[in-house]
Amino acid sequence: MWGLLVWLKRTTQLKDSLEIGNVSIGVVGAGSWGTAIADLLGTKGFEVNLWAYETEVVEAIRTKRENPLYLKGHTLSDHISVTNDIQGAVSDRDLVVVVVPSHYVRVVSQRFADALSKKTILVSASKGIENQTRLTMTGVLSETLQSVTEDRLAVLSGPSFAKEVAQKIPTAVTVASKNFETAGFVQHVFATPSFRVYTSDDVVGVEMGGAVKNVIAIAAGIIDGLGLGLNARAALITRGIAEISRLGIKLGANPLTFSGLAGIGDLILTCTGDLSRNYTVGTLIGKGESIEAILSKMRMVAEGVKTAESVYNLSCDLGVDMPICKEIYHILYEGLSPSKALQRLMTRDLKNERDEMDH
Prior knowledge:
The chain is an alpha/beta fold. 53% of the residues lie in helices and 10% in strands. It has helices at 2-18, 32-43, 55-64, 86-90, 105-112, 137-144, 162-166, 180-190, 203-225, 230-250, 261-272, 277-286, 291-296, 303-318, 323-334, 338-346, 353-358; strands at 25-28, 48-51, 80-83, 95-98, 121-124, 153-157, 171-176, 195-200.
């Protein structure tokens, strides 16, 4: 009870202090999601340092207050300062948000490891599983940023297309940390009348939901690209959350997480929304395009393509049955035809649904 009272007092004080915008923030990554996050926080009144890899993005934001490469047509907050100096972007910040493609998190975070303050709270908003190590993004950050202790590390995830967040369309997400004070801090920093934030202590579950749903979204796109109808897509989403849950639970996640925003919520959005890059990749595959041709035309990253390899290998390592993810891996990396993958899924041994959910 005493711990709860202390937490309530601290979060009340924190909320009051945040209203005057005295928290300094760095955002690492100026893709669509990173730019939307920076604008969300800048519009709230925080001074935000945004690091962009491309010099043209830096110049466009400085001169036009717009990111035409990744968030075209949206005027950005004047509270955003943009830079190509990654160490300068994070130095002496109270909060740093990492929003780069998952396969760049390791190399990018190594570049600013020495610049972080000991007080900095780090938030991962990247979704994926590293190919070589099978680590989630907080796992990668824990290795590269050893000065950031577990109690100052959080992950933000949930159904949140960048374009809609930038347009202030109502959105709800989850922030997870093993330290409830850190989760509460990040919750109050991000929360606005159009961006509702829930807290969780299930870091593993929130990260696995955010990563694996991108693989399932490719499958959903393939279904629509093949013209298979709504029945098939509904079944795919339902069986998809079963696969995500099985892998997450094996890794120690709370099963209830997968019925929440970072689980089924994010999965539904990514499997049905035409703003989803992973769904779009799947649709084009279903229509007969090769993955090489699709990726050659895309500027933004479809995380599910690389994550499919990680999920396949991780599920094999752990002995977790993930038939949808397995077939997507074979389609992307071994040239299996979507029609053959569908036939293999539909003619698997018949099972009791509940028994399969429990495996």
